[in-house]
Amino acid sequence: MRSNTSTLYKISLLIVFILVGLLTKVYSGILHEFISNYLGGTIYVIFFIVLASLLFPRTRPVKISIIVVIITSMLEFSQLIHSPSLELWRESFAFRALFGSTFNPFDFIWYFVGALFGLFLVLFVNKTSK
After folding, report:
1. 0.70 exceeded by the pTM?
2. Taking phi first (over 0 means left), then psi (-120 to 50 degrees means alpha), and beta for anything else, what does residue 92 get?
3. 59-82 pLDDT per residue, tens
4. What is the rounded CA–CA span in Å between residue 121 and residue 105?
5. To 5 degrees, how large is the angle CA 53–CA 27–CA 83?
6. What is the number of domains present in the chain?
7. Structural contact between residues 107 and 36, judged by C-beta atoms closer than 8 angstroms
8. Do residues 50 and 122 touch, judged by C-beta distance below 8 A?
9. How many CA atoms lie within 13 A of 17 on its CB side?
10. Which of 17, 104, 122, 130 could lock 47 by a disulfide, CB 3.0 to 4.6 Å apart?
């Protein structure tokens, strides 16, 4: 029964994080730059940790969190590359929302915050689903 409950919780969380993540990209109120840039990055990392824990349930959540932060950091560094083909892709909202467009070293702080939150969230779901 644990597996089914855990799966349902994680799918529900993924839906919530997709909606919240999209909202961070279109929000234009108070603190919109912080919410769009930093909170959006945090949500992004949490989403992929939950997704990976769903796809690879036997992998330790700590390992998943580390891998997601490494991949996200690589994507952040890729924003330093400004080839014409990448710039063309970056004009699309979907590409910018998923992969970003501008390198910002402060993003790493929020990736780590997201990794910690995502790790604890997955551990909590796994524990409460037993």
Report:
1. yes
2. beta
3. 999 999 999 999 999 999 999 988
4. 25
5. 70
6. 1
7. no
8. yes
9. 23
10. 17
